[in-house]
Amino acid sequence: MPDKKLFVLDTNVLLHDPSALFRFHEHDIYIPMVVLEELDHHKKGLSDVARNARQASRFMDELIRQADLAAIRDGIALDHLPQVARLEGIGSGRLRFQVERTDLSLPDSLPGDSRDSPDNAILGITLALSRIHTDTLVILVSKDINMRIKAAVLGIRAEDFHNDQVLDDIDLLYPGIKALPEHFWSTHSDGMQSWLEGQGRSFYRVSGPQVGEWVINQCLYMDDDSGFEVIVRQKQAQTAVLESVRDYRLPQHAIWGIHARNREQNFALNLLLDPTMDFVTLLGTAGTGKTLLALAAGLHQTVEQKRYREIIMTRETIPLGEDIGFLPGTEEEKMTPWMGALLDNLELLTAADSGSGWEKATTQTLLMSKIKVSSLNFMRGRTFLARYLILDEAQNLSSRQMKALITRAGPGTKIVCVGNVAQIDTPYLTPTGSGLTYAVDRFRDWPHAAHITLKRGERSRLADFASEAL
């Protein structure tokens, strides 16, 4: 197999990540003319797709302005663009454009009537390049699985764009929780120190071989009757400081009438209520209580403790079925159909009130005055000061969108991202390439961030069974 490779980029790769131009290391990349035409078609609008199309065009424009006509025909070096000098693994190959007409003939045996479609044009160019450059491995890169299937039928090597994938397998994602072995104390009790601080919180300083595997703010527990549940607060080499958690499973410790129903929910409430945690991510299947816990903790800290000015709730507006079209009203009114989870959970949080219907309605109106629903489309340029921001359905965001949102946080703001990577509705996003997966992996060692994966469904026995059986 030739060592030299030439990657032909499909349009959707650049629409997904404009910096893909610089992600192929020492290998050359090839841009067919039809890809430039499709970028031009997608550049209008305020969507992320339109922004990515414009950014990809800017990258190529700046590269072309630094080169002469001969360099364009021979390939433009990719390692001289200042804007992307800080990108990890920046490419050192060359960018090649289609500068002359190529024989795009596909096999006559290829069925279908859309032989002149952009996809077939790209396939024809790739096939022609593989015949011309016999000493080079020509590879088509596309996020479209059907495009890759058609390429395989034609004998063209095709691959997905994997550079945006954080992990090789979603099962390798950091869970945020770990069970300690039965023999833990026999190997870690020597020289252990313990003391009390604050509201009766117990702290332990332990040393031993297991400590090196822990992560800051990781949740640890003993799977026995001891009830030992702690969070790693400090870590240095083979020594760590552990803090015992508060038991929110007890009715007297309920938060807005909600108490934890299992160990993972108890850990989640401890992290959500911790003022030192600026960024918390909650993963879990449907019915594990992600949104309910985040909202209850937010109301407790906003209404009772006055730690935050208000709660901001947002999510990516990806419909589960057919789109319902344009909606009238203000930004908040337009977002109302997407915020059914907020209303459902708010109803549950106010249901514990034993007052009259009028009192319940008044309470819900008061709470809604502390909750603002915002659209992700208008987040750019904003700065949130002392806000409690809940990002629902965070699995539908790309890594670039996740970065754009998190960098909106100002002093005193806490961001909580909740989602289920098994329910991604955004095209071309996979569990390993989701912005939520990206955030969990990149924040795992930061002392002001924490993550927990909720496993046990608590919505109803029907929902719990459906999550497993369907």
User: What gross morphology would you assign?
Assistant: elongated
Structure summary, number of beta strands: 18
Distance between the termini: 43 Å
Poorly predicted segments: 318-324
Largest sheet: 6 strands, mixed
What portion of residues belong to β-strands?
15-25%
- Which percent range fits the helix content? 25-40%
| Total tally of structural domains | 3
Instruction: Give the oligomeric state.
Output: single chain
The CATH architecture of the largest domain: 3-Layer(aba) Sandwich
Q: For this structure, what is the CATH homologous superfamily of the largest domain?
A: P-loop containing nucleotide triphosphate hydrolases
**CATH C-level class of the largest domain:** Alpha Beta
Structure class: alpha/beta
**Average of the residue pLDDT scores:** 81
CATH topology of the largest domain: Rossmann fold
Radius of gyration: 26 Å
Main sheet: strand order: 3-4-2-1-5-6
Total number of helical segments? 15
In short:
Helix content is 32%, strand content 19%.
